Amino acid sequence: MQRRDFLHYLSAGAALGMMAPFGNLLAATGPTMPGNTGANGRVVVIGGGMAGTTVAKYLRLWGGTGVQVTLVEPNPTYISNIFSNKVLTGERTLTQLSYKYGTLTSKYGVKLITKSVVAIDPTGQQVLLNDGSKLLYDRLVIAPGIDFDALPMSGTAAAQAKVVHAWKAGVQTTSLQSQIKAMTKTDTFILTIPAKPYRCPPGPYERACVVADYLTRTAKTKGAKVLVLDANPGIQAEVENFTYAFKTIHKNITYVPNAVISSIDATTSISKVNTSVGSFSGKVVNAIPPHKAGKIITDNPLLASVGGRWAGVNVLSYESNTVPNIHVIGDAAATTQPKAGHIANAEAKVCADAIVHLLRGEAVNPSPMTNSACYTPITNTTASWLSVVYRYDPATGTMLPTGNGVTESSGINKDNHEEMLKWFSNLMSDTFA
Ligand SMILES: Cc1cc2nc3c(=O)[nH]c(=O)nc-3n(C[C@H](O)[C@H](O)[C@H](O)COP(=O)(O)OP(=O)(O)OC[C@H]3O[C@@H](n4cnc5c(N)ncnc54)[C@H](O)[C@@H]3O)c2cc1C
């Protein structure tokens, strides 16, 4: 297969080697809901993001009418994090990145409840919603994404409010966009990257590139600098492409590794970021704090079995290692796979397939495969990419990269930027349409 076809195949959301063999074909040609497939039960899904929406859709598509799926999500609209860096530069709007759940309910018969889950009762197999109501489940899928540790900060409330992460697309993205727009040519934009694991390994370096590109392309800000303070010892993804981009394309970027934040002195003009390798001052501070699984996981120490921060799962079904009948997918799960939207979509399909089999009293697929692809805008017209296919390894019980592992684009160019737009459109259609 040509790389282009391969990436389009991947981006159609294939979870390779799964036991619902026609799933991808159906998705590509316009799926029809099957009747009762012998799988019967109530599945509650917490979180309508990349992972939760996909699992809800595919549970119905592969499980049929006997699988009653209820999705609980507090927001009526999902705003994609993917491409939200392009909102910072004015190339996209949040409205263009907004997705609704209409198809999920009308086409696939998923029941949507626009509320939050505030507690889980694994013994009674029920969840409590923020309006006091309860939902019983036979299988529960939790896909709440991530939460953050608080960063130690000083300064007035107004000054502290300016220090945003914008790592969950929404109001913080808009705030950061305004702050970048207000910069002048003598200003510095500071981006801090937390120690791994964090969501979207190439994402922060991508942000540094597109902000540096915007600052250089805009007359008012040409000459402004980008300072990347990375808590990690080096660039975490696409090392060759980002090293080249930082050194050659965006000479206004300075990259500082091993910079673990100790505190931030926020002011409304110049803020100071104190780190393990020194203090740095900048006009705009975009601080991405250390990550952990969404609160509904960390509120339940039994579920947050990996350091009290992430959910340990069996990657054959994404069932929790510690709590039966509860599955965790997407960024909140601790696996060997990256925390990213494309792989969240793939994990969701492995999980949906496994639950359908379990509801039929059958064994789950013993050798699932997943895939991740990530396109990275480097400027407003060029991009790079990486892709990797994972296969279940029975010896370690983990998903391991196949072949040569992670493949990266051999360059940064306009073709990649065009393919990126198609990839994104396919991925979001597979998730929300
Ligand atoms: C700037 C940026 C760029 C990115 N670019 C890419 C990219 O190019 N490619 C890629 O693959 N990935 C990318 N990602 C990563 C990707 O967005 C995430 O990995 C992905 O969204 C994870 O999916 P998820 O379903 O686990 O979490 P989310 O998509 O965050 O969804 C979680 C959902 O759960 C809901 N929720 C939380 N708690 C509760 C509760 N108690 N009750 C009910 N609902 C709840 C939330 O409201 C939310 O809708 C990027 C991320 C960022 C920040």
TrEMBL record:
Name of the molecule in the record: FAD-dependent oxidoreductase
Sulfide dehydrogenase [flavocytochrome c] flavoprotein chain central domain ranges (all copies): 173-289
FAD/NAD(P)-binding domain segment(s): 42-166
Lineage start: Bacteria, Pseudomonadati, Pseudomonadota, Gammaproteobacteria, Thiotrichales
InterPro entries membership: FAD/NAD-bd_sf, FAD/NAD-binding_dom, FAD/NAD-linked_Rdtase_dimer_sf, FCSD_central, FlavoCytC_S_DH_flav-bd, SQRD
Source organism superkingdom: Bacteria
GO molecular-function terms, A-Z: flavin adenine dinucleotide binding; oxidoreductase activity
Signal peptide start and end residues: 1-27
UniProt entry keywords in alphabetical sequence: FAD, Flavoprotein, Signal
Stretches assigned to the Flavocytochrome c sulphide dehydrogenase flavin-binding domain: 366-432
